[in-house]
Amino acid sequence: MHFGLTEEQEMIVSTVRSFVENEIYPHENEVERTGEVPLAVAEAIKAKTLELGFYACNFPEEVGGAGLSHLEFALVERELGRGSMALTHFFGRPQNILMACKGEQRERYLLPAVRGERMDALAMTEPDAGSDVRGMKTFARRDGGDWVINGTKHFISGADHADFVIVFVATGEDQTPKAPKKRITCFLVDRGTPGFTIRHGYNSVSHRGYKNMILEFDDCRLPDAQVLGEVDGGFDVMNEWLYATRITVATMSVGRARRVFDHALSYSAERKQFGQQIGKFQGISFQLADMITEIDAADWLTLASAWRLDQGLPANREIASAKLYASEMLARITDAAIQIHGGMGLMDDLPLARFWRDARVERIWDGTSEIQRHIISREMLRPLGA
Amino acid sequence: MKVLVPVKRVIDYNVKVRVKADNTGVDLANVKMSMNPFDEIAVEEAIRLKEAGKAEEIVAVSIGVKQAQETLRTALAMGADRAILIEAADDVGTDIEPLAVAKLLKAVIDEEQPGLVLCGKQAIDNDMNATGQMLAALLGWSQATFASKLEIEDGSAKVTREVDGGLQVIKVKMPAIVSVDLRLNEPRYASLPNIMKAKKKPLDTKTPADYGVDVSPRLAVLKVEEPPARKAGVKVGSVAELVEKLKNEAGVI
Question: I need a surface site. Which of A96, A194, A300, A335 has the fewest CB within 10 A?
Fold first, then answer.
């Protein structure tokens, strides 16, 4: 067993960390206040990321990425997790499902996404289909040689900046003994396609400036060339490529928790009450001990699941455990950090209230805590016939 | 032209430095170490000279414990071509004194024959601000310290120096030692491809004995103490009171 990072990995960590501290932190208050990322700031972050060769570093070298391992990419995302998601969105990490592009789709979607020329977004969730993905109502029917899509997607992060969207749509239904089961197909849809509208979604308590959008399909006509993967093979591409992306929430939760902890630790060493630093009271010091223990545990759980992917080992349960534990850990850490700061922790003058609000969504998106528990328990019980 | 850049591994500038309980030095256990920020500026300037076609090769040199290898890898990841590590101490707490460092650097320079040495004006650990000057004296080369601007011309360097009264522009004959100040440039981040390439770049390891230099200390540290805590300020009610205090309490006017 070896738990150390290589020199390259250490340098990746320190480079991304200073990037986040110098290029992301200074803009956070403005994004928080206005709910918008100024265009010039977004462009500058993107340009610097491209220049440093970190853009699309999750993609293999043969398509122009940096070919990082899952573990190395987890380290990058962990450090990015320290900063505002609205801003780190431009430290581009296109959906790796684009690797399923075939033929001329590579020139139109995959390669421009890796080069930072076109941005993508992924659309699955619908008003009536959250955790129950298969319950989606957006439907594509055959019309001549084309597909005609109707329906609505919501909570689509990053779609405000997307040049094209990767959308999961029902394309049929199979009868099964239990109930009808939908067949799903994945489509690539360009912004500006007739019948396709991207509009503003809801105001969220978490991650101001990282917008959730609503996509509307009203007789949106697409040729077969827009199908990503196979017709009715949506779940196959989803399982092949979106499997690993759940690590993102876990890594980012760990990174943010460390930033929050640094605030709590230094405040405990500085703030004096009853004639001494509050860190000298056991009520605070034991709290700090529990916090760092939980953060380290989540960090190792997350890195271990990424390492398993690199080794080609089954990792479904481990990734689910990491996502579950890290997102719930972040909720506890942000709450405890505010308690340590007292009333000041709730004020906009410190970023703690923001971290606390941002933490809430991590237990919901990319599979709720309940869905992760379902995956974890199913992986253990199914082989036993339960 | 070859450019030589000495780099030092020091406590990261973000770390709150603690004095050891026995007052023998600074606590280095579990403390984040980084490249001396002024040396980073020197590396950046060397890379810019190379990008401008004024330098062909950049050699980074570090003298200290074997962990200084990480500092050299950072220089390589930024864009230096190769590195030399002189392992002069086993204990991370040992600081090699400026004169010994200057002697070792002179020996390296005799071998490497660079046209320019770019070094940080001082290391942020001991703030000696001596190595560059001593090295210039040992080599008999021209020196330009505290550079905030550097222009390489034919056989000479035009250097803008940050001096107490403002800026001073001097012209020095090459080869020269230029020690760099904060405002010379803003160092770049290491790019991901360069981080990956850094490992493949050559890094030679030497010892002081290879150069016949004695690095044993000439100075003895008697006691290291925290600087006295700054006293809280006072509010003055009027200009007259301020002038009175500056005159009689502070004694500055």
Answer: A194
Least Cα distance to B81 among B194, B187, B206, B207 occurs for B194
CATH homologous superfamily of A120-235: Butyryl-CoA Dehydrogenase, subunit A, domain 2 (2.40.110.10)
Q: Give the amino acid at B57.
A: E
Residue contacts between A and B (CB atoms, under 8 Å)? 39
Residues in chain A: 386
The verdict on a CB contact (< 8 Å) between B195 and A11 is yes
- The structural domains of chain A, with segments of one domain joined by +, span 7-95, 120-235, 242-384
Interchain CB distance below 8 Å, A15 and B190: yes
Q: Which chain A residues are closer than 8 Å to B70 by Cβ?
A: 7, 10
Contact A53 B191 (CB under 8 A): yes
d(CA A175, CA B47): 66
Chain B residues within an 8 Å CB radius of A11: 73-74, 77, 190, 195, 198
Nearest to A52 among B34, B191, B198 (CB): B191
Angstrom CA distances, A10 to A81, A121, B32, B112, stand at: 17, 30, 12, 30
- Could you tell me if A57 lies within 8 Å of chain B, comparing CB atoms? yes
Q: Return the closest-CA partner of residue A187 out of A238, A144, A145, A137.
A: A238
CATH of domain A242-384: 1.20.140.10
User: pLDDT (tens digit, 0 to 9) for every residue of chain A, 386 residues total?
Assistant: 789 999 999 999 999 999 999 999 999 999 999 999 999 999 999 999 999 999 999 999 999 999 999 999 999 999 999 999 999 999 999 999 999 999 999 999 999 999 999 999 999 999 999 998 889 999 999 999 999 999 999 999 999 999 999 999 999 999 989 888 999 999 999 999 999 999 999 999 999 999 999 999 999 999 999 999 999 999 999 988 888 888 999 999 999 999 999 999 999 999 999 999 999 999 999 999 999 999 999 999 999 999 999 999 999 999 999 999 999 999 999 999 999 999 999 999 999 999 999 999 999 999 999 999 999 999 999 999 98
Nearest to A7 among B34, B191, B199 (CB): B199
> For residue B198, what is the nearest residue in chain A, using CA coordinates?
A8
Give A278→chain B minimum CA distance, Å: 19
* Nearest chain A residue to B190, by CA: A15
Q: List A190's β-bridge partners, or say none.
A: A164
Q: What are phi and psi of B76, to 5 degrees?
A: -65, -40
Verify whether the Cβ–Cβ distance A18 to B189 is below 8 Å: yes
Which CATH architecture does the domain made up of A7-95 adopt?
Orthogonal Bundle (1.10)
